[in-house]
Specification:
This protein is of the alpha+beta class. Helix content is 28%, strand content 36%. It contains 4 helices and 6 strands. The protein is globular. The model has no long low-confidence stretch (mean pLDDT 90).
Amino acid sequence: DPNYAPKPGTVASAVKAQLGQTCGWINETSGEILEVAVAAPTASALAAAKSAAAGGTPISAYGEQGYFGVTGGIGSAQIFMGRLWLTVSSPEFVSAQDANAIFPVVVHNQMTAGG
C-alpha cells in the first residue's frame, strides 16, 4: 500500500515508535490492510512489549514463542526473537489460526536474513 501508515494505538504504531520498520499490503479481495512490522527496541521497551502481549493467546512459529490478540478490531500476532519484536496484524485476523498463513513466513524470512 503506497499510502500505508500505521494507525495510532495499533501494535504496528507501537513498533514504529521503537524506530521499527512497518509496511502494509492491501488484500485485493477485501481491501483490508495486512501490516508487517519489526523493531529492535531497548531492553526496557522490549520487556514492556512482551508484558503487554502476554495477555493474548500463546502461539509459536519456527520454534519461536509469542502471542496473538485482538485490539480495536485488529488481530495481531507477535513474536519476540532475541532483541527483535516481529508482528503481523490485520482486521481479518480474528484468531491465531487466521494469522498462521502469513506469520510463519515472516519469522522464517527474518531468521534466514540473519535476524
